[in-house]
Design goal:
The complex is a heterotetramer, with 2 copies of chain A and 2 copies of chain B. By secondary structure, chain A is an alpha/beta fold. In chain A, about 35% of the residues lie in helices and about 20% in strands. Chain B has 2 domains: about 10-335, Rossmann fold, CATH 3.40.50; about 340-375. In chain B, the strands form 2 sheets. Chain B has a 5-stranded parallel sheet, sandwiched between helices. The chains are: A alpha/beta, B alpha/beta. Chains in contact: A-B, A-C, A-D, B-C, B-D, C-D. The interface between A and D is large, with 43 and 43 residues. Bound molecules: thiamine diphosphate (2 copies) and magnesium ion (2 copies).
């Protein structure tokens, strides 16, 4: 395939779907499991058509039990499969938390390397869709804190396409967080060549005054904020974290050493969060470069509110710019 | 999976509304004989009224008034039968599709609407007597079954059941679905219920589907048979027969209240509508199947039965009018619903003051005020 | 709770070792008849040898050589019977007290010792053929039952069972306890096993206690009866009768391998020792109870049976000597065990390089070197 | 009772036990639930004698199912009880994680304040006892990140005695983390008067050069480090966090503003941890006061290792002093 023909514009969900299809086609032990992912194609239609294409032994509509899904995925991985689990919504991952934390995350270590655990857990996460309780949460901190897991979150269709394939290829368990607000976002996907490795962070926009860092759906918001800031004379660099565990600090530190100021944006409650870690680490490693403390713009430390308040709860362009102003005012 | 016409089925009214008890129904007939004409009419009215509300809510969602609506359409008999078998002092733990249960116990339908509109997570206050001890919906499937069991343990420890006085004895009834039955929490709820002999009824509405997944994926054998493994009696009932649903629930609740321990019921019914307004059932089920269940519509069945017993046109017309008025009232009140103050987000996370709530609420107020100031 | 002498019990050898099959045992007798004298001697030897190891390990713990030891004392017949019914191609998922199972399949006892000494979390490599497809222990009770089911699903999907060739067909057997049976994961494992018809045996060792909690707290009715609720056949066996344990396991495994779907077994046995070396059973159970179970000692029973069949003193002496040598060897090798390099902590958290591991391993090495330098 | 007679010396576990007894005696709807807590008195004997004293309807030996224990505790709280749950070891809390996170933490909020959730979850946590896997972990970050929970950890017998009573009195759910290494630590308990409210942090030692902050068993280690540092001419202030959520920053910020340097110590893996949050917040709020970045000494980002390596894994006096030196060298 030549570069020219390999670039297509498609929505995020379709790119994910294409990535899943490519992984399934290249390894017949890649298998999808979850609630309503087969005949229905998943509530977000990410797996649409895959059961028809690969059969119901490769795309399983499982019983309704998340611990059971992840627990049997572990057993399948022991038997040589590469299961890709879909959790229907962020808030429903907790029944599987024990299997993820005490088992999936630890089994390779417990086996002293004798057993790999190539299990991917896909979780549509985050807000912006006006849904009922448990359907808009951002549980990434729980996973990022857990040794043995890798945690990633694509924010563009191109990353969705490549990162899902890289996650499936990983011999380690990967928590794959899909910003559900972006499922319909269209973008260019280059199916010939991956731009970046799975765990690299990415400079999404160049700038000189303040470094904006975030993940998932917030990357779009940060880019919008940067555009607005530019019109007001402030030049923001935007870094898309992409990988929440491990975190690729190189581009962030490099940026902060140039700008001296940083704002982190996330939808999750801020207390003991990925943003806390990034802030603490950046301040530790770039202490003398900083002209103001790393500021965090997060979801409030409350349960995700009823949908009519999500606009208040979720960090938006204004709240990010407010933090940018505060950083600049130091 | 339970075949819809399992020989163990308790059914009193055939699909066409004729009185034709199955052999298993015989022992329940005295409970049905004890019902007055008014009781029968109430059952019918409950079903018709809530179906009208349910349809109205579906329309409201289509009109953009609600984020989501999970219809109870088709499950009215299972819900009315069981809820009319409860006593005022009983506690009810619904899952999330029990609109018939909730409203029959006194919950204002607008409170359910508020949940589905994105104005509230809980909707109503279960400690307010007006709500008939109806606990709020739980969206994490199966997890509320443990709350019901724990509540039942509290009844045992406080001597609220098995007192010898049926007017004082209390019970809990917990509703869950065929899909939820696979969750580990449901198992643990049954383990604890049997160990502590809670005065509790596990009421499983097997509506054949968990979104797009047929009950055969959850279990190849009848779900009600699980109860025996915990030492719990169970009954399989035609959930589209309101009389049978009433009778089996009544007996189970009476026994539980009196101290006989927990009981289980599987009500065979059908989700006649979509899973929710976001769902398209044509993707996963046939219209043949839907039609075959339309033949067993619980309201049509009771209508035929009452009609045969001599209920008048005037009665049916009056019920229809009441239902329309009820649904209309919901529509009017839905359209009048206001918004939410940002401060409500922080107000109830904790019962006692918490520094992060104080700080973040203050910050939000000042931040919002800064815009107001800017616009002024 | 299952009474130890439930009429459903499959037992071949009475407590005194006489051949006295219960009515339920009749259908298993052909499997027992097929056993050779060597087989019977092997069963006996397995039990005696591992009991000697188990006692040795308890001593080693007392001497401070181990952090902890959970004895298998008393459960030898349940474990030997079931494991001798497996085929080489089968996969075994133990809980954490299956020392008899593990060593009989080939696991080096020193690997179990290493786990309990605090040298390793896993102990052995289940992918090494020497370990007979014995998976490692899982300490989070019940969670491994799902791994076993998932493994069984893999067998189904890869056509590793029900091939028509019994020499190729594979099965999984998963061990768990009466306490663990209350966990939601065990329920979900049964749900998935039945849905996907895994070639799987759920082997419950009901040793009457979960630390200090009697089985009656987990269930008021027989645990094996739970299987029926999932559509799974189950058998109740005297777990202190190695012949009965063998026969019921053999049939269940053969059927599972051939494609008949999962099966359940409840083996009634007794934890004759403490829960672990940290435990003091006199706090919660009577010596009467302990003595009544001592009468049913699985090894004494088989000893009497073999003796009556004409086994010689020389045989028994030889087994005792072999057991003593085995235990001695474990002691010697335990005392020779070394320590752990700090780097092992970082080596296997991930299969691929990870920056935090690289940094933290490097930091640790430099930090440790700084002390070495200081001391030099 | 007079002050003179109200002070007794007792081990931490006995102080806890006395606190539980006092709470049970003063409210007959306080009820203990857990595995082996009744007849056996718990594997650490904290509830020893309480079932004999209060009966088996007040001290329940439950079936072996953590989700069941917490889930029914929630139901009991709805029915007017104040359940105190014991989780046998840190690593066994995860089967209950869904009930804790999606239910217990959120129910008061979901009920818009109409229902209180006075449930205490006691968890013996942390290392130093040479035990097998799952018996030495520090899961506090998971709970501290979760809105709706309060998280505390006493480090002295006096705090054990009072904090358990205050936790039981709290209308909110409290995760009560007991540093198991300290169960045998003796100390004075004043049964007449509480020294501090539940959520206050505590200056455990005064100092001027570096502020050392930590929680649980680490407080002892920090005090030992401070003693050693003093002998080498460095004066360390030690703050015992006591409450991990919410965190009482007053004494910490006050100290850091005086010392300009801070080290946080915890046994948990450092990535996305309570230490990350404290570091990020202190750097944010005391930015100009800091002469060096807040440094963290944590468990490594690995599963808690086999017991023979716990001495390497767990932060000790030397590692803390190494960080103190680094802080001073900035
Ligand atoms: C733990 C959990 N997992 C997934 C979901 C998403 N979900 C909502 S309803 C539903 C199907 C429920 O089926 P069933 O229990 O039969 O109830 P029904 O919808 O038929 O009333 C699913 C999968 C959920 N709410 N909770
Ligand atoms: C999830 C979980 N909770 C608690 C424990 C602590 N624990 C270890 S063994 C045990 C009792 C187990 O009883 P049972 O399942 O009957 O097995 P047995 O010890 O009798 O072999 C308990 C409570 C654990 N290991 N895992
Ligand atoms: Mg259903
Ligand atoms: Mg046991």
């Amino acid at each position: 395939m030549t570069g020219a023909t390999s670039v297509q514009t498609m929505p995020f969900a379709k790119a994910l779907s294409a990535g899943l299809r490519a992984a399934m086609a290249s390894d017949d032990h890649v298998l999808l499991m979850g609630e309503d992912i087969g005949k229905l194609g998943g509530v977000f239609r990410v797996t649409e058509g895959l059961q028809a294409e690969f059969g119901d032994r490769r795309v399983l509509d499982t019983p309704l039990a998340e611990s059971g899904i992840v627990g049997t995925a572990i057993g399948l991985a022991m038997a040589g499969f590469r299961p890709v689990v879909e959790i229907q919504f962020d808030g429903f991952v907790f029944p599987a938390f024990d299997q993820i934390t005490t088992q999936l995350a630890k089994l390779t270590n417990r086996h002293e390397g004798a057993l790999q655990m190539p299990v991917v857990i896909r979780i549509p996460y985050g807000g912006h869709i006006g849904a009922v309780e448990h359907h808009q949460e951002s549980p990434e901190a729980y996973f990022a804190h857990t040794p043995g897991l890798r945690v990633v979150s694509p924010s563009t269709p191109n990353d969705a396409y490549w990162m899902i394939q890289d996650a499936i290829a990983s011999p380690d368990p990967v928590i794959f967080l899909e910003p559900k607000a972006k499922y319909w976002l269209k973008g260019e996907v280059d199916t010939a060549e991956r731009a970046l490795p799975l765990h690299a962070s990415r400079i999404a926009r160049r700038g000189t005054d303040v470094t904006l860092v975030g993940h998932g759906a917030m990357v779009t918001t940060l880019l919008q904020a940067a555009a607005l800031a530019e019109s007001e004379g402030t030049s923001c660099e935007v870094v898309d974290l992409r990988s929440l565990s491990p975190i690729d600090y190189g581009p962030i530190l490099d940026s902060v050493r140039r700008t001296g100021r940083m704002v982190y944006a996330q939808e999750a409650p801020g207390n003991v969060s990925v943003g806390s870690e990034v802030a603490a680490t950046v301040m530790e490693r770039a202490f003398f470069a900083l002209e103001s403390p790393v500021l965090r713009v997060s979801g409030f430390d409350v349960p995700f509110p009823p949908a009519k308040l999500e606009g208040t709860y979720l960090p938006d362009v204004d709240r990010i710019l407010e933090a940018v102003d505060r950083a600049l005012a130091y | 999976m339970t075949p819809p016409d399992d020989p163990a089925l308790v059914r009193v009214l055939a699909a066409d509304g004729t009185f034709a008890p199955t052999p298993e129904a015989e022992r329940f007939l005295p409970l049905i004989d004890a019902l007055t004409d008014t009781d029968l009419e109430t059952f019918y009215r409950d079903m018709v009224v809530v179906r009208a509300f349910d349809r109205q809510a579906t329309h409201l969602q289509r009109q953009g008034q609600l984020a989501l609506w999970p219809p109870s359409l088709g499950q009215e008999a299972a819900q009315v039968g069981s809820v009319r078998a409860t006593r005022p002092q009983d506690h009810l733990f619904p899952s999330y599709r029990e609109h018939v249960v909730a409203t029959t116990r006194g919950v204002d339908p607008i409170d359910i609407i508020r949940v589905m509109r994105g104005l509230s997570h809980g909707g109503w206050d279960p400690t307010d007597p007006a709500n008939g001890n109806t606990h709020i919906y739980t969206l994490v499937l199966g997890s509320h079954t443990l709350h019901a069991t724990g509540y039942g343990m509290g009844m045992v420890f406080d001597g609220r059941c098995a007192t010898g006085d049926p007017n004082r004895d209390e019970a809990v009834i917990v509703y869950y679905g065929d899909g939820a039955s696979s969750q580990g929490d449901v198992h643990e709820a049954m383990v604890f219920a049997n160990t502590y002999q809670t005065p509790q009824v596990f009421f499983l509405q097997n509506n054949q589907w968990a979104i797009s997944v047929p009950v055969a994926t959850q279990s190849r054998s009848p779900l009600h048979a699980r109860a025996a493994g915990y030492g719990m009696p169970s009954t399989l009932v035609d959930g589209n027969d309101v009389l049978a649903s009433y009778a089996v629930s009544k007996l189970a609740l009476d026994e539980a209240r009196a101290g006989a321990g927990p009981r289980a019921i599987e009500a065979m019914t059908y989700r006649m509508g979509a899973h929710t307004t976001s769902d398209d059932p044509t993707k996963y089920r046939t219209s043949d199947e839907e039609q075959s269940w339309a033949q067993r519509d619980p309201i049509a069945r009771m209508h035929a039965y009452l009609r045969a017993r001599g209920a008048s046109d005037a009665f049916f017309d009056e019920v229809d009018a009441a239902a329309a008025a009820y649904a209309d009232d919901v529509r009017v009140r839905t359209n009048a619903l206001g918004g939410l103050e940002a401060s409500t987000m922080f107000a109830h996370v904790y019962s006692e003051p918490h520094p992060l709530m104080v700080e973040q609420e203050r910050w939000t107020a000042e931040y919002e005020a800064s815009f107001a100031g800017g616009a002024a």
